[in-house]
Amino acid sequence: MAPTRLSCAVLPGFFQRNRGGIINIGSVMSQMVQPGNSVYGATKACLLHFSEVSALEVGDSAVRVQAVLPGATRTALWDLAGVGIKNLPADILMEVDEMVDGALAGFDQGEQVTVPSLPDTGDWQRLVKARADLRPNLSRNHSAPRYKIPAFAAA
Questions:
Q1: Is the per-residue pLDDT at 82 higher than 80?
Q2: Would you say residue 119 has pLDDT above 90?
Q3: Per-residue 3-state assignment (H helix, E strand, C coil) for the chain
Q4: What does pTM read for this prediction?
């Protein structure tokens, strides 16, 4: 809720000045459908969607909106959540300064979505394209043929 309210509060001034930027920190968990991640992942997916749509809505103005999707990052959050940071594999744990540097580099490069640990941005672009390819078939006036009950289809 806070990122939405803050964005709505600052965007009018950004538009008036035709400059400004919003960087929303989400999580890679927005993309992971797995047990134990329902609420956290859903809130991060909401933030990602909000950020992506906001980026489109600012259009050709000089205002920018970015979503950052960090993976596991060395913060106090882990201990507060009852998951000792020492229990995480070292090869998935990024230092905060490196995550922030990656996020800001992505912002400077014009990325609307930055995943600091993702080696190939083409992976993200393929995901975005796959989602766009689904769009024409996500809302139609009839259900797909595989859902037709034979007696209903004949009527």
A1: no
A2: yes
A3: CHHHHHHHHHHHHHHHHCCEEEEEECCHHHHCCCCCCHHHHHHHHHHHHHHHHHHHHCCCCCEEEEEECCCCECCCHHHHCCCCHHHCCHHHCECHHHHHHHHHHHHHCCCCEECCCCCCHHHHHHHHHHHHHHHHHCCCCCCCHHHCCHHHHHC
A4: 0.89
d(CA 25, CA 66): 9
Which domain covers residue 80, as residue numbers? 2-120
Count how many domains the chain has: 1
pLDDT reported for residue 155: 56
Domain contains 154: no
Q: Is 26 exposed, middle or buried (0-12, 13-18, 19+ CB in 10 A)?
A: buried
Q: Is residue 134 part of a domain?
A: no
Note whether residue 125 is domain-resident.
Answer: no
Residue 45 falls within a domain, yes or no? yes
Q: Taking the CA of residue 19 as centre, how many other CA atoms within 13 Å lie in the half-sphere pointing to its CB?
A: 1
Q: Which two tokens stand for residue 57?
A: 């809505």
Asked if residue 137 lies in contact with residue 57, where contact means CB atoms within 8 angstroms, the answer is: no
- CATH code of residue 46: 3.40.50.720
